[in-house]
Design brief:
The structure is a homodimer of 242-residue chains. Chain A is an alpha+beta fold and 242 residues long. Chain A has 2 domains: 64 residues, Winged helix-like DNA-binding domain superfamily/Winged helix DNA-binding domain (Arc Repressor Mutant, subunit A, Orthogonal Bundle); 158 residues, 3-Layer(aba) Sandwich (Chorismate lyase), CATH 3.40.1410.10. The first copy, chain A, is built from 7 helices and 10 strands. In chain A, strands 4-5-6-9-8-7 form a 6-stranded antiparallel β-sheet. A two-stranded antiparallel sheet of chain A has the order 1-2. Chain A has a two-stranded antiparallel sheet with strand order 3-10. In chain A, a hairpin with a 3-residue loop joins strand 1 and strand 2. In chain A, helix 1 packs across helix 3. The radius of gyration of chain A is 20 Å and the shape is globular. The two termini of chain A are 36 Å apart. At the A-B interface, strand 7, strand 8 and strand 10 of A face strand 7, strand 8 and strand 10 of B. The first copy, chain A, binds a DNA duplex (19 and 19 nucleotides) through helix 3.
DNA sequence: TAGTGGTCTAGACCACGAC
DNA sequence: TCGTGGTCTAGACCACTAT
C-alpha cells in the first residue's frame, strides 16, 4: 500500500476508497453486512485499527451503519430510519405522521438548459420528469417535480411508481441500484400559482417554500434534480445548525 | 477514573466531559490554544489516544479546532470562518459578499409565553429585544427580532450594539462570555407585512422566509430566540443534507 | 531542531447479540 | 460460548510549524 500518493493521502483514506469502490461495484448490497473488520484488515493487509478509522468516517457519512455485536451494514433507504434523512418537514403540532408519496404523472422529455446543467448531462439528452404529491395524513403538503436522467432511470414509468409502496429513494435503490448519498437544497419563498394552489388546496398567491434539491450518488455525481413547493400552513422546514 | 458509571460511559467521554467543563469554566478562552494532548493525558491520567478521541469528537462538533504542528484551539465566533456557520443565506449570483449587521433598536421587556418557553426562563422575567437589519452590499435582506434573557445579557444596549463591528455572536462571546454552540431553525413561508416590506424594501405581500431560530450554549441551554424574515429576491437559503 | 498534531500498529480487554 | 464491534493502551514514526 503506497503512501506516496501525489497529494499525500493517509492509509486509512486509501482503505476507505477501496471499501467505497467495493460498495459502488455492488459487492455488498444495501442492508447487507460487510465483512468484519478483521477480515477487511487481512484483505487489505493493514491493521484492524486502520480499517476501523476508514469505517468510522463512512459511518459518519451515513454510508455504513455499525451494530455492536453484530457487524457493519451497508446503509439503505429501505431502512425506516432513513426516511427523514432528506425530508426536513415537520408538523407544527408535533404529530409526526408517515408521509405518503402520490405519483401524479410521469413522462419523457429532453433536457433543457437548466436540467442539463443540474444533472450534468448533455443538452437534449433524454430525461424523465415525475410529478408527485406528498401527503401527511391525507393532507397535501408538497408538490414535487422531479427530473431524472433517462439513461440511468431507464424503465421508470407511471406503473412502476404506482406499484411502489415506499419512499422514492428506496425505489431508486432497489429498482435502479442507485444510492442517494447527499443532497443540497436551495430554499426561497414564492407565491402559489394556479397549479400549486389546486394541488396543495391553498389560495392562489399563498406564500410557499420553493425547495430546489440536487441529489448526489457516489463520487458526487448528481442524479436527481427536483423542484418542490411546500405548504407551511401546518408544517415547517426544520434545520439543525451545528 | 471510574468506568462503572450508572449508564456505562467510555473513558474518552468522561475525558470529553472534563475538557468541556474546563472550557465552560473559562479555563481556556476562545481563540486560545488548549494544552497539548500529552499534557492533557498526564493531567487526566489516561493515554494520549484516549484524549485524542475526546478531542476528535469535540472538533467534529466545532468546539475545538485542530491545527497540525501548532496545537488545538478553542473555537471562536471571532474567527471569520465561523461567520457562515449559522447564516445559510447565499446570493443567487455567486457574489459572496460580507453581510453587515445594522442594529435598529434595542429595548427591555418582560418575557411573554412564547419567549419564556423558548428561552427556558420564567414568565415575566426580564428580556432584551433587539431589532436589526442584515445587509449584503447595502441591500437589506434580513430583518431580525432577537430575544435574549436580561439576566445573561445584562448591560446590552443600543450603544453597545452600535459600537460593535462584527457578528452578533462574536459580540456575545467577547462581551458576555457566551459561546453559541448549536442552533435549530424552523422555516416557513409568509407574506411581507407593512413593517417588513418597508425594512426590506419589497412590496407588501411579497413571500418571505420566516426563520425562527433557537440557539444553544453549553449543556443545550437555550440562550437566544430570534425571528427573522428573509427576502429571497436575490438570495436563497442553502442547506446541505448528509 | 524541537514540539505539536496525525497516522499506524499490535495486543488486551469490554459490551453486545446470537446461538 | 463465540464472534462482532467498542475501548484503551503504548510505542513508533510521519507531517507541519516555528525557531
Amino acid at each position: 500500500m503506497s503512501r506516496e500518493a501525489p497529494t499525500f493521502s493517509p492509509l486509512y483514506r486509501q482503505i476507505k476508497a477501496l471499501i467505497l469502490q467495493a460498495l459502488e461495484s455492488g459487492e455488498w448490497r444495501p442492508g447487507q453486512a460487510i465483512p468484519s473488520e478483521q477480515e477487511l484488515a487481512a484483505r487489505f493487509s493493514v491493521s484492524q485499527g486502520t480499517v476501523r478509522k476508514a469505517i468510522d468516517e463512512m459511518a459518519a457519512e451515513n454510508l455504513l451503519v455499525r451494530k455492536q455485536g453484530k457487524g457493519t451494514y451497508v446503509a439503505s433507504h429501505n431502512d425506516p430510519r432513513a426516511l427523514f434523512r432528506f425530508l426536513r418537514l415537520v408538523p407544527i403540532d408535533g404529530d409526526l405522521s408517515h408521509p405518503q408519496s402520490v405519483p401524479l404523472d410521469c413522462w419523457r422529455a429532453k433536457a433543457g438548459q437548466e436540467a442539463s446543467r443540474m444533472l450534468g448531462i448533455e443538452l437534449g439528452a433524454p430525461i424523465i420528469i415525475v410529478r408527485r404529491l406528498l401527503k401527511f395524513a391525507t393532507r397535501p403538503v408538497v408538490i414535487d417535480e422531479i427530473y431524472l436522467s433517462g439513461e440511468i432511470f431507464h424503465g421508470l414509468t407511471s406503473e412502476v411508481l404506482q406499484g411502489w409502496n415506499g419512499s422514492l429513494y428506496s425505489l431508486f435503490e432497489t429498482r435502479f441500484g442507485l444510492r442517494m448519498i447527499r443532497a443540497q437544497e436551495r430554499i426561497r419563498a414564492v407565491a402559489a400559482d394556479r397549479n400549486a394552489s389546486e394541488a396543495l388546496k391553498v389560495a392562489e398567491g399563498t406564500p410557499l417554500l420553493s425547495v430546489e434539491r440536487v441529489t448526489y450518488t457516489y463520487g458526487d455525481r448528481p442524479v436527481e434534480w427536483r423542484r418542490g413547493l411546500y405548504s407551511t400552513a401546518e408544517h415547517f422546514y426544520l434545520n439543525e445548525l451545528n
